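tool=predict chain=A
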Amino acid sequence: MTEPLLRIEDLHVDIASRERTVHALDGVSLDLAAGEALGIVGESGCGKTMTALSVLGLLPPGGSVTGGRIRFDGTDLAAAPAPVLQDVRGNTIGMVFQDPLTSLNPTMTIGAQVAEPLVLHRDMSRAEARARAEEMLRLVGMPQPAERMRNYPHQLSGGMRQRVAIAMALVCEPKLLIADEPTTALDVTTQHQILELVDDLRSRLGMAMILVTHDLGVIAGRVDRVAVMYAGKVAEQSGVRDLFARPRHRYTEALFAALPERATDRDSALHTVPGLPPALTVRPTGCRFAPRCAFATEECRTTEPELENDERLGADHRFACFHPVPATPEAADPAEVVVLPPAPPRPARSTEPLLELDDLRKDFPLAGGPFSRRKGTVSAVGGVTLSLRKGETYGMVGESGCGKTTLGRIVAGLEDATSGTVRFDGRDLAGLDRAERRAHRRRVQLMFQDSTAAMDPRMRVGEILREPLVIQRVGDRAAQEEAVAGLLDAVGLPRGAVHRYPHEFSGGQRQRLGLARALTLSPELVVADEPVSALDVSVQAQILNLMRELQRERGLAYLFISHDLAVVRHLADTVGVMYLGKLVESGPAEQVFAAPLHPYTRGLLDTVNEPDPEKAAHPGRTPLKGETPSAANPPSGCRFRTRCPLAQDICARVEPPVSTPRGSAHQVACHFPLDAERTEEPAAA
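tool=predict ok
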């Protein structure tokens, strides 16, 4: 057998601070052959990123390798001196970090940053390096690469910045690429483009790859083998198809069960993994997953299981579990099947609309510079008409830049519309005086995407949750503190949390605090803007179940903005699909997902990363192609026509009216809807 390109053997990593030492990795062993792709998955804090950073010696302050070896291409990187590691980084091993905006230098142009590794490692002149950098930007699909060379990171979109990060990682043609959550928080089409790009370049350059992610859909169609990590150890590893078809470790089974795609029906609760991973300040005794496992026995609590092969599944499938999932359905014990309790029946929703938007438009001025005149406008929302009933969830989906968030901010009162009407509970918001507008703010609240940035880091949680009550003069201090305690109970956090700061909570706990903050004034409508986009699958399931439960208890309506179609399909009653400021399709969620009428909706569904290797490889899928046009100069007629496979001359000349095809309960704005007959008269949206 040939020596693998990368071999991690019994790796131990500690992170020491003044107060404590965290045993971040405790005996991790992995192999990676040349040209092979390995996926590493697991919950936040399980050791995925720490394993990747250890390979390059990029541990955080206080971090050190306390045991084991990292052999790469014949060299032990765990014991290598700094000059050797510096020669490896960006040269023979490239890395793409999770957030390209923080990993790119804001003071350097894109061209200088992509060329820098060539100057350092390949002794090229700056002119040669810049020429090669431009060629690399063209290779990663950057539009107008010569012009982009002169741009700074803040002038690019998220997808473009990620392409720059990939170009930097690959410009020296490394033997190994490490990609740490490269598509987190990107919309489905940008995700697909980035992953397709990495696949294509890996094939061309013959690279090996480690793909770190919590998105099981990303893993399913992109890697050869998968390692599932939990609490600093490898719980299971296998070929990707075998793992999805026959997971053996109970933790792997729990992760798959928490996927929205695995829910039996949209009214049922998602499966969740109870509890939290261990803190790892003290090495746990026994199986680390035992406190959260429904099948744990005394043996699991006292003895640590070793990674072992399953002879029936082949030597490549290894897991560390005393009570594994049966290898075949016939071998399953009925007593071991976990059945979730049925969800309470959903209360009957009102037929009266709570929120009505009529031809809503929002334009932003486009200036040429600080001293120049206005150059034009950006059409962020281009005439949206919709209604949302009391107690209903309206899911808004579409690519980044389509206007979803701008629309949500208008509804929440953070932006004023350029034209059109916003009616809430029958009243036009434009006609409200100052006192009435202040009262309206209590009825509509916003749940932000980034819960960390939405909270003042200098304020304790109790102050953050009490602040809206103080501003709105609701009750005295004792009543306000009691209301805060009730909110913490409602979102499943201890009352003692009032004395802690936001940074002392996990990502999932901070999102619970964000939900509590939105509910402080007992609103009737919550605008939830990408509330679970950066959460791992188990925490995501907890937040979605909590939102559904609070909706039942309080009669809440949600305007749920997301690019995750599986989440929207599970949670939403009605779905609206936006493209470049226009609502192109809307209707009951199940109908829109099962039988989309607009080519854009069909393209979005075919672009989704399926958490199933068999579905991911289905030949009938036709993902969206091309780039979204600029909202400053949208196409004439149908705005989607420049990317539409069905476009004809009329699409460029006439904007398609909203119509309701016969036999359908949802509406579409398309001259040539899919598999549907047009009505003779367009219907109102």
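The radius of gyration is 26 Å. The chain has a mean pLDDT of 88.
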